[in-house]
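$ ./design --mode recover --in tokens.txt
reading tokens...
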């Protein structure tokens, strides 16, 4: 799975189950890692900032 695909999956999950994404430490770690990718979508940077992992 590419970094972009991972980012899209996280963003889709956030739209579907917002509290699950915001409350799980593993998701925070994933967002922090994927956010560093050059091809990460803009929405992921916004989510990272919201989660405090930017």
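writing sequence...
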């Amino acid at each position: 799975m590419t970094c972009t695909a991972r980012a899209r999956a996280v963003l889709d999950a956030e739209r579907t189950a917002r509290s699950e994404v915001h409350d799980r430490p593993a998701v925070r770690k994933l967002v922090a890692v994927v956010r560093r990718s050059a091809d990460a979508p803009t929405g992921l940077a916004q989510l990272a900032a919201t989660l405090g992992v930017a």
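exit 0
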